[in-house]
Each structure stands twice: as structure tokens, then as C-alpha cells.
């Protein structure tokens, strides 16, 4: 096509789009696509022509109008907590449920075994810890261990330790998931034996209301960290239709997202243990309020909200499809 015919054929459209720009984003996108096509044709057949320079300028202007002034309605940090985490967690709800049930089963095993064998709790917790706890019970301070040491140092020490434990549970998942599952098994059994030790002394309710001030967040986060480890290992063991390396890379990324979401949980749990649990003589209603608030957060953010988010996203996709 000769240059004059090319210009004559498209001149009206170019002038219209320049003189009366549209506010419709779809029309702007279509205009940009057409300009790029025209520019490509012009560069091919009339590389040194004025029309090529004109089309290049028009395409650049349209591109800038689409992207340069685009406003972001949320920053990346907000997007991570509001969208990325719940989307990822929802994708792996099955793994989280499995790990939670696995932990609960072995909590019951530890509780039952300890109630039928007095030596079992010593095997799981060690003679030193059991002896210290029994001495505290005799003194009328069954949870005195939580009042030892300074609040700040205790908070930082517990926080660092719990973060290290969670990372360890996560990293062990790479070895076919089994070390992570063994860690969850041991943790469940130890907690069951620990709780039975207080129930056997008639301190069951007080134990729950005291220990789970921080334990609700702490134990939940450890189980979820274990689930992140399973996600990591599962992506390598069962790549599905994807190449193993690609499946592993995607699984590792999603597992890290879940693990990172637990950092604030561990920080707050350690704060509760360092600053609040030491006041184990506080009113039961206050202990119960903290415990239930912590449980509500875990249930909402890791179970309810991801389900709601998925439903809303599917609804939006259906609406967009039907309106297209």
C-alpha cells in the first residue's frame, strides 16, 4: 500500500482519537492497539516518513495516558495481608485441616497415655520440669514458671525461639514432609501430657485459662507452620501435571507466604506469654476473653475470611464474564 493511501485510509480515525479522546478504558485500550498496529506497519514500509514519527508520538501519548497516571488503590503490604495470604491459605485449606486433625489426635494420645502411665509425662517433659511444676503446685503457684525473669527479655527470648521452631518445622517439610509430621506428632503428645499433669491435680480449667492465653496463638501458629512445611514437601512429591521444579518453586513460594503471615502471630503470642500470662491470678473472665479473642482471630483469618474471599472473587469473575 502506498503511503498516501495508507494515510487517507486511517487519517479520520487518527484525528478523531486525537481531537476527542475517550474516557472509556476499553476504547482507549482498543485505540492503543490499533495505533501500535499502524505504527508497526508504517515502520516496516515507511521507516523514515513523517507519518511514522507521528504515529510513534501518538502511541506513546496513549500509552502514558493508560499507565503513567494510573492510581494504585492499595499498597503492596495491604495487598499481601488482604488478598495474597487468604488466597494462598484457601488453596491449601485441606493441608491445614489435615495437620490440625493430626495434631489433635496426638494431643489426645499424649493426654490419655499420661493419665494411664505416671512415668509418661516425665518421659515427654523431663524430670526437672515435672519436679519444678509439682513444687510450684505445692506452693500454691502452679504457673509460677511464667512469672520468672523480666518481661521484656522473656518476650524477646520466646519470640525468637518460636520463630526458629516454626522455621524449622517449615524447612523439615522438604524431606518428603515426614520430619515435619513427626515434629507435630511430638508437639501434640507433649502438650497432651502437659495438660493432663494439671488436670490430674484438679487444675484443668485454670491451666486452660492460663496457658492458652498465649498458647492459643502459639500452638495454632506452630500447626500452621507445620502445614506450610507440608505444602513445601507436597509440591515436590506430587507435582501433578507440572514439571517437578516448577511445581516445587510455586509450592515453596506459597509455603513462604503462609509462614510469613505467622510472624505477627508469634510476636503477639510471645508478648502475651512474657507480659500477661505471668498474672495467672487474674479474673477468669479476663483470661477467657483473651483466649477467645485469640481463637476468633485464628478461625476468622485462616478459615472464614479465605472462604469469603474466594466466594467474592468467584462472584466478581462471574459478573465480569456475564457483562463482557
The average pLDDT is 89
Order of helices and strands: HHHHHHHHHHHHH
Q: How many separate structural domains?
A: 2
Could you give the count of β-strands? Answer: 0
The rounded distance between the terminal residues' Cα atoms is 35 Å
Question: What global shape is seen?
Answer: elongated
SS summary, helix count = 13
Global Rg: 30 Å
Question: Structural class per helix/strand content?
Answer: mainly alpha
Uncertain ranges: none
Helix content: over 70%
Biggest pleated-sheet summary: none
- Residue share in β-strands: under 5%
Describe this structure as you would to a colleague:
It is a single chain. Helices cover 82% and strands 0% of the residues. It contains 13 helices and no strands. By secondary structure, it is an all-alpha fold. The radius of gyration is 30 Å and the shape is elongated. The relative contact order is 0.10.
Amino acid at each position: 500500500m502506498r503511503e498516501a493511501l495508507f494515510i487517507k485510509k486511517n487519517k479520520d480515525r487518527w484525528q478523531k482519537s486525537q481531537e476527542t479522546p475517550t474516557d472509556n478504558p476499553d476504547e482507549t485500550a482498543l485505540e492503543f492497539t490499533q495505533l501500535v498496529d499502524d505504527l508497526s506497519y508504517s515502520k516496516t514500509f515507511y521507516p523514515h516518513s513523517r507519518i511514522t514519527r507521528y504515529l510513534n508520538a501518538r502511541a506513546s501519548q496513549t500509552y502514558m495516558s493508560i499507565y503513567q497516571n494510573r492510581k494504585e488503590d492499595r499498597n503492596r503490604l495491604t495487598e499481601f495481608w488482604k488478598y495474597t495470604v487468604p488466597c494462598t491459605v484457601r488453596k491449601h485449606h485441606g493441608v491445614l485441616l489435615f495437620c490440625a486433625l493430626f495434631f489433635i489426635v496426638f494431643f489426645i494420645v499424649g493426654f490419655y497415655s499420661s493419665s494411664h502411665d505416671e512415668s509418661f509425662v516425665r518421659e515427654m517433659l523431663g524430670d526437672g520440669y515435672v519436679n519444678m511444676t509439682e513444687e510450684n503446685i505445692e506452693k500454691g503457684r502452679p504457673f509460677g514458671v511464667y512469672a520468672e525473669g523480666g518481661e521484656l527479655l522473656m518476650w524477646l527470648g520466646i519470640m525468637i525461639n518460636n520463630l526458629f521452631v516454626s522455621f524449622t518445622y517449615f524447612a523439615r517439610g522438604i524431606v518428603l514432609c515426614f520430619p515435619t509430621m513427626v515434629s507435630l506428632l511430638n508437639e501434640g503428645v507433649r502438650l497432651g501430657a502437659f495438660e493432663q499433669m494439671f488436670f490430674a491435680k484438679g487444675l484443668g480449667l485454670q491451666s486452660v485459662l492460663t496457658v492458652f492465653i498465649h498458647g492459643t496463638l502459639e500452638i495454632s501458629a506452630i500447626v500452621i507452620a507445620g502445614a506450610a512445611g507440608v505444602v513445601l514437601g507436597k509440591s515436590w512429591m506430587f507435582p501433578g501435571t507440572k514439571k517437578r521444579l516448577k511445581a516445587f518453586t510455586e509450592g515453596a513460594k506459597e509455603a513462604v507466604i503462609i509462614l510469613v503471615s505467622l510472624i505477627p502471630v508469634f510476636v503477639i503470642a510471645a508478648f502475651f506469654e512474657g507480659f500477661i500470662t505471668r498474672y495467672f491470678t487474674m479474673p477468669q473472665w479476663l483470661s477467657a476473653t483473651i483466649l477467645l479473642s485469640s481463637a476468633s482471630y485464628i478461625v476468622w483469618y485462616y478459615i472464614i475470611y479465605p472462604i469469603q474471599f474466594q466466594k467474592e472473587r468467584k462472584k466478581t469473575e462471574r459478573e465480569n464474564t456475564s457483562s463482557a
